[in-house]
Amino acid sequence: MGEFNFKNLGESIHSIRVKLGISQKDLASGICSQSQISKIETGEISPYIHTLVNISERLGINTNHFINQISKEHYEFVTQSKYRVREHIKKKDYREVKRIISKLEKHPSFQNIEEKQFISWHKGAFLLEGFSGT
Question: Measured over all CA atoms, what is the biggest interatomic distance in the chain, rounded to whole angstroms?
Answer without folding.
Answer: 57
